[in-house]
Structures are given as structure tokens and as C-alpha cells.
């Protein structure tokens, strides 16, 4: 149970601070894409501390019995509850014991390790070590190990291990010793929980003295130095209303783990993490803070996905907290899919298949609003129906109407973008034929019906919200319109590709969608006519129609604020101003740089970056990518550090609702797509690196069409080294010069400039 000795692989918390406990429970969460467990302490007193201990299961949604009925990720039974009494008095966290307490997130092994000295009101005490995992090799399995060393002898010890299902909101279908089955009230989704608990005292197995349905209890008299080991294994399985009984699956998973024994279960889990790190690790030499931030981001990204389940996606807080009710946003496709597509394509495919399986919900939403094709939900749960609430409590504690569910429609183009990028990077033709093409065509059909040709000869998209949510009910948002145009053009390209390469697939799909050449031609005409807001004389995109006429406020003058700028200015003034909540035109620049000719990229970045209040955790990552691509590595590094601080710095806002998984994806994007300058063409990968001065080297691994590449960019020698571990020869473009790479001969290219000068 010892953590790795390399500090870049661990997050360490020493001492004890009850005010930070909820945020640290999120930071120290463990997950395997199916089972998520917040990193609460092994022993707690109840009350507020109980809220820190929480288990979430992917896809387990229920409504909360309120109007309107909004699906929420249900809380599963707390399987890690432990209570220890010495002489009948419970152990608690004393201030004087705080120096002996620490909690470690071992990111290399995917485990949380705790050490503490705990005592009761009479000063009887124990030394405690704890270890728990959510198995990455057997996703149904969670495991908890607690070691206790008694300080005094002749003490009456009571140890209770239980599963707490109080106030979780699920209905009990079955309850027997070590096995329970729960059901959501709204959907009938069932959750089975099978548990095995054992206790050894000085390596001697001791039977429990009390054995309830979900409780195990032992009593004995201690001796000095006595060592107690509590081992608990839990198996959880989820099943739909009409699926087979999940209890059998939970029992089989538990039996398999018990036959292996907990050391073997842990070893298999660690091997699975070794495999993930081999495919995804990013190494930075010269900047230990950045290295730890990258490892933290990659730890949570690798733990958030489950390639075995095509019916779930990754929520805005993954499985680390309750914020946004476990709903899925555009965050997944824009901020997470790049990482999975380039390092874990099986996980990327499953996430996109979730969108394919919810396509019927997107079609129904478009039809209900009077349009054709597929309009994906801004907030999605299990069915693809819109789950965005109509009102929320604002920063001033007043109710605020939420229009995102009706107006933030760019998500359909965002999903299409992720589909196309996945296919281009992986070459997964089967996915394109069987799922991706239908998403591309139906989202394009939506955009073609959503636009209106007007007397100026342009197609307009009115009454939307772009990524900048400070401005609502706007017309011709540049991000939305350009992404819509891109979506339509890729759909037309997809139709031609299917017709030429897979005519049978085209006949089937076009017949199913009732899509003919006349409609495709109309789409092309719409794409040509969409208003984009680009002014060729200035090189600027107007964020939306009328944006340049709004009040121009100096955002830098409010740099010392402790609350979002819309709270400082007030909602109405913010809406009348050019203050931007988050990357909007800058996000477009990050996603579709080819849409910015000549020096338009630099001009738009300079204009909009100075007006951005970064009121979203998503914002700085996009700015960091663009700044790095423009050659300003030090500005990009500042965005990198501020994004990293969101979840790692206790001086920032509390993260008790869960880690910001999209900003963690953005950290990887800034390193690989920004500083390394990774991009791709139709048949090649490209690199255009610009490293911060402090970074001596940057190394990472990516996959490209069944090829495994290891890339190292060395700043002192200005050399890019690329080795292919598997796959056929391919083309690589390095700073504009094309090379051929093969397994036989690694590529080593000396480049002219590397560190931080602005180009």
C-alpha cells in the first residue's frame, strides 16, 4: 500500500481541514468509467462528513420527484462506511492529531492511500492506514483495505463495516446478507450490490460477531501493537428495466474477485493502469508543477471513460461529484474526445456511439421545435432528451431563466465535428458507415432547415446562444454559423464518400433517411450563403450581429475581482457590453484554424482575448491552444497554469461538486495540440512545436490509424524525435517539411525555432 516515490505521480494532502474536506473528496475521487467513488476519509463521524463519501454509477439516472422532473445521476449505496469504537467511544479527528494525517492520490496506480492517528474522547488511539480502488481491469469491482495498529492493550474494540443506503433515493427490490438490488423510480433501472467483508487480527481470520443484511461487526479486547486488517470487496452491476436480473452479474463478479484474492485484484488493476499510462502519459522536463498538473488531468481522464459501454457518456464532473446532475454537455466532444481519439480510440468510439444511440432523441427535439434532422440536447442524460433546467439560482441567489436548453444549438455541430475528427484520425470506416455518417447527415439536415434565406442573399441563424453565454437570443453567432457551415460541407463530403466507396451503405442510409440529390444540392447552396460575420477588410469575425456596437469595457481593470465579472457589472450591463464569458471566436479559431486567412488568427485572438472574463472553466484552455499555435508560449503557459489551478489549488473556488473534467481535457490539449503543435491532414500528422522556456522537453504518445507513435520534443537541441512502435509507414509534416516515418527508422528532425518567441 505504499505510493510511488516519484512526487509527480502523487497528490498529497497533509493535516486536516474540515472546510476543505468536500473539495478534497472530489480531488481524491477514484473512477473506472463505471464506478466512481469520492475520496472521503476512511473513518468519519457522520453529519457533514457523510456527504463527502459518495458512490456514483454511470448511467444510473432518476428523477428527484420534483417538477419539472429533471433526470439526475442517482447516488448509489455507500459501501465504504467504517466505524470504530474504543471502550464504546468513536474515533474522531482531533486537531492535535492533524499533523499525523495524510491522504495520497497515487495517480500511477489509481489508488487513494490514507495514513492517520485517530483517538477518541478518552485519548485511546490507533494508527490507521487505508487503501481503496475502483478496479480498472474489472469495472464492477471496488475494494477497500484498512490496517489498524492498536496503541494500547486491554481496550474493548468494536469495528463496524456497513453499506449505507439511507436517503439515496432508490427503491429496494431485494435485500439479503451481502446482496441488495435497488431500482430507480422513474426508469426502473436496477443496481445490484454484492459485498464480501473479512477481518484478520494479527493475520488470523476472525468471524464477525454480528452479521446483518448490510452490516458486519466485530468485538474483541486489544493488545499493544495488535494489527487488524479489514478487507472489503464490492461488486456493482447496472441493468435496464427489461434486462436480466443484475444480481447474478454482481454475484459472479464478486465470486471471481474473491477467487483471485485481493492482492491479485489489485495487481490486475495496476497492470490496467500501466497500460493506460503507456498509451497516454505526457512527460515534461524542467517544470515539475506542469508535470503534476498533466498527470492529474490524465489520471481523471483515464478514469472517466468506459469503452465497454456505448450507452453512457462523460458528464461535466465525470463521476467525481453531483454538479450538473451528471448531465453530458458539448464538453465531451470538444474538450475530451481529442484526448481519447488520439490515445484511446476504443473509448472515443464508445462515447460517440452514445450520441448515435441518442440520435432519436435529437430528431424528436428538432421536430418539436419545428425543424428537420437532429438537434442534440444541450444537457443530455440517458435518453438524449433535453434535461437542461428552465431556471437556476444565480450568483446573487435570485432565480435566473436558463435559455441554453432552447438556444445553445451549436452542440449538434460540435458532435459532428468530433465524429469527423475521430474518423479522420482512426480510419474507422465501419464506424462511419454504421453510425457516424448518419449523425453527420442528420445534423447537417438540421442546420439546413435552421437557416433562413433573407433579402440580403445570406442565410441567417437567429435567436441562439453561442459559447459566450453572457449574450442570449443573438443572431448569426460566428461560432455557431461557421461550425454549421462546416457541418453541412462535411455531410456532403460524407455522402459522396459513401456513394463512391460503399454504394450499398449509401443506398441503405439514403433510403432510410429519404435523402436525395436535390436535398444535398440545397445544402450546398445554404453552406455558400451562411452569414459568418467575417470582415475581410479588418480580418475580424464579429462574434454576432451587432457585437461591435456594444459597450467596450476594459476587462483588465477588473482583474482583482474575486467573483465572475458579470456579478461585478450586473447581468444587464454585461449583456450590453463586449465582455465575453468564455472562448467563442477564439474557440472557433482553435477548432477550425483554416477559417482564419492570413493574419486573421492573430488579429482575432488579440481582439477577443482582451475582452474575455473567463467566466467558465472551459475558457482558458482554448486561449492556451491558440496562443501556443501563434508562437506565444509564455502566454499559453499562463493559461495552462490557471487552468491547472482550478482543481489543484485550494485557494481557488471550491470543487466540492466534482472536478472540471473538460478543463482537465483542455490541459492535455494545450500540451499536445498547443505546445507540440500537433494537427493532421488527410493522410499525415503534423507538428509545429513551440515550448515554454522552462520546458526542456515534452514527450507524449499518440495513435494514428493503428499506428503507435512516441514523440519527444527537446528544447535545448531543438530536435523533434518520433518513433513508431507499430503500424505501416506514414507521412509526418514537421514545421512545414514532409518526412516518411517507419518502424525501421525513427525520425529525428532539427528545427529552427522552438522556445517561446512570438511569431
Automatic annotation (TrEMBL):
Query: Any idea where the Glycoside hydrolase family 65 C-terminal domain is?
Result: 681-741
GO terms in the biological process aspect are: carbohydrate metabolic process
Identify the keywords attached in UniProt to this record, alphabetized: Glycosyltransferase, Hydrolase, Transferase
Q: Where does substrate bind?
A: 330-331, 581-582
- The residues responsible for catalysis, as annotated, are 469
Q: Name one GO molecular function term.
A: carbohydrate binding
Report which superkingdom the organism of origin falls in: Bacteria
Show where the Glycoside hydrolase family 65 central catalytic domain sits. 295-669
Q: Name one Pfam family in it.
A: Glyco_hydro_65m
Residue span, Glycoside hydrolase family 65 N-terminal domain: 13-236
- Stated family: Belongs to the glycosyl hydrolase 65 family.
Q: What is this protein called?
A: Glycoside hydrolase family 65 protein
Q: Which organism is it from?
A: Paraburkholderia polaris
